[in-house]
Amino acid sequence: MTALSIPEVARLEQECFPAHPWTQDSIEECFQNPAYHFFVAKNDAGEVTGYIATYIVRDEAFVENVCVTETARRQGVGRALVERAIENCKANGASFLSLEVRRSNQAAIGLYTAFDFEIEGTRKKYYSDPEEDALIMTCHFGQAKMWTPFGDAEISFID
Ligand SMILES: CC(C)(COP(=O)(O)OP(=O)(O)OC[C@H]1O[C@@H](n2cnc3c(N)ncnc32)[C@H](O)[C@@H]1OP(=O)(O)O)[C@@H](O)C(=O)NCCC(=O)NCCS
């Protein structure tokens, strides 16, 4: 994503999260922060149809937001965005990607489950308008370098 897409991303936020959209000012601020990584999907006309933002610190990565415009849903855009974000998290040394999602958000839970995200916990009454619990879902990557106070350590997960 380049800075030119910020106004379109802010419009998407208003469409997809009318109660609490990320404002254009906050998107701009995060875009300047190197820990944030943004990717957009565009249609043939060059319009932004979806975006994803992740935050990476050390070996930990978090999805801040992902959304796809209503008319472009169920066409693989969300899947492409999550796939690109995972690739980027791995390339930046993350060992997992985690997120919060509304318990009732079947579309998003379906998308994350398709990438082997697993439910690791809940945050009670995390959301408002309407009030709802959040599920914490995490995708652990097979191999990664973990930051420790004594230097990097090679770790792997066996399932
Ligand atoms: C969640 C969201 C990003 C999915 O985007 P999308 O482009 O429609 O997703 P895709 O077409 O790539 O779907 C990938 C998979 O996700 C799952 N999925 C997507 N929409 C679904 C739905 N409505 N119901 C159940 N599963 C769904 C399916 O497993 C799907 O694979 P399939 O089409 O082969 O069955 C989109 O619905 C959205 O923007 N929702 C509003 C914003 C939001 O809730 N963001 C998440 C915040 S945590």
Describe the protein.
By secondary structure, this protein is of the alpha+beta class. It has a single domain, classed as 3-Layer(aba) Sandwich (Aminopeptidase). The chain has 4 helices and 8 strands. Strands 1-2-3-4-6-5 form a 6-stranded mixed beta sheet, with helices on both faces. Strands 7-8 form a two-stranded antiparallel sheet. Coenzyme A binds at residues 16, 66-68, 73-79, 101, 105-108, 110-111, 114.
Q: Enter the CATH topology name.
A: Aminopeptidase
Bound molecules: coenzyme A
| Biggest sheet statistics | 6 strands, mixed
CATH architecture: 3-Layer(aba) Sandwich
Global geometry: globular
- Give the tally of structural domains: 1
Separation, N- and C-terminal Cα atoms:
34 Å
Averaged pLDDT: 93
- Total number of beta strands: 8
Low-confidence stretches: none
Q: Which percent range describes the beta-strand content?
A: 35-45%
